[in-house]
């Protein structure tokens, strides 16, 4: 068994892609700790209320983004691999930021998205080590890099 790797799963929160990757890795016997930003949209938006009520939407969002960044930046720095999923239903600005932050940290990046998003994500994909279209492809890459042959 190889050493335990940490894989940060960033991006789209409206489908089960994280679970597909985690289940595939578990089935393959990969020694991985999966981490991610807070994926409960309401909790992520409302965490700034810890610092008190805020009437101004800008400051409401600013407080929440600062608190969320504590988790995200810490886990990105600790990660061995960063997987960034872009869905087609919503714009994932946070995911694009996570990819850029991971690139600045020199992390290995795997992007995951449908072919229709190739053009708008060309710069993000250009910084990635691999570009996948399915969670199964991500699992296959993780198997390749983690399992001793």
Q: Any overview of this molecule?
A:
The chain has 149 residues and is an alpha/beta fold. It has a single domain (5-146), classed as Rossmann fold (3-Layer(aba) Sandwich), CATH 3.40.50. It has six helices and five strands. Helix 4 (93-104) links the parallel strand 3 and strand 4 (108-112). It is globular. The model has no long low-confidence stretch (mean pLDDT 94).
Concise account of the structure shown:
By secondary structure, the protein is α/β, with parallel strands linked by helices. Helix content is 46%, strand content 16%.
Task: Please supply descriptive tags for the structure shown above.
149 residues, alpha/beta, Rossmann fold, 5-stranded parallel β-sheet, 6 helices, 5 strands
CATH architecture: 3-Layer(aba) Sandwich
Number of helices: 6
The number of domains is: 1
Give the strand line-up of the largest sheet.
Answer: 2-1-3-4-5
List the helices and strands and how they pair.
Elements: E1 5-11, H1 17-27, E2 32-35, H2 41-46, H3 57-78, E3 81-85, H4 93-104, E4 108-112, H5 122-127, E5 130-132, H6 135-146
Parallel strand pairs: 1-2, 1-3, 3-4, 4-5
Helix pairs in contact: 1-6
């Amino acid at each position: 068994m190889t050493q335990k790797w940490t894989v940060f799963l960033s991006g789209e929160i409206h489908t089960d892609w994280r679970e597909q990757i985690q289940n595939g890795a578990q089935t393959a016997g990969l020694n991985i700790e999966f981490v991610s930003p807070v994926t409960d949209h309401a909790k992520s938006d409302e965490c700034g209320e810890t610092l008190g009520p805020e009437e101004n939407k800008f400051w409401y969002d600013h407080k929440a983004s600062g608190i969320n960044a504590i988790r995200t930046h810490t886990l990105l720095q600790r990660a061995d691999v960063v997987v960034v999923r872009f869905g087609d239903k919503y714009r994932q600005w946070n995911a694009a930021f996570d990819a850029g932050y991971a690139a600045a940290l020199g992390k290995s990046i795997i992007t995951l998205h449908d072919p229709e998003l190739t053009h708008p994500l060309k710069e993000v994909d250009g910084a990635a080590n691999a570009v996948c279209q399915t969670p199964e492809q991500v699992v296959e890459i993780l198997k390749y890099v983690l399992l001793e042959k």
